[in-house]
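sorry to bug you again but im stuck and you know this stuff better than me. theres a chain ive been looking at and ive put its sequence and its fold in token form underneath. id like you to explain what the token line says about the fold, in plain words if possible. anything you notice is useful, everything is just below.
___
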Amino acid sequence: MPETRYTILPSPIGPLVLAGAAEGLACIGFPAGKGMVTPGADWQRDEAAFPEARAQLGAYFDGRLTRFDLALAPRGTPFQRAVWQALTEIPPGETISYGELARRIGRPSASRAVGAANGANPLPIVVPCHRVIGASGALTGFAGGLDTKRFLLALERRPLLQAP
């Protein structure tokens, strides 16, 4: 098994744990709640790890980037990976329901399974699970908490800033 490296990225929503290996970023963890990630005993802290992810996340939080282009290495079932891929196709600042996401992957009756896969997304923000909402239009569960979900959606709805 490849060595897991991690770093901590300060952000407006609190310190994020970025973890993975040579093949790419495998995990983004929130500072608290259901999406909190605690480094494993065998993980190696490496402040130089994931420079491109740190740069792109910084640009995202600064309002200069809406889509990520990173080497990712999430671990999941083929179904989960299909859901996660579909998440990346939701335009920034837009939201869709779990049912719509199920339709987009060709499994219209699988909205609950889609919800579970969405909740298991190991790469929130980069794989934008925060863009999925309930059928009623209400914000629903999010590993980083609903305040974080609101913050991310509001951030994405602002006009994109030009790089200095």
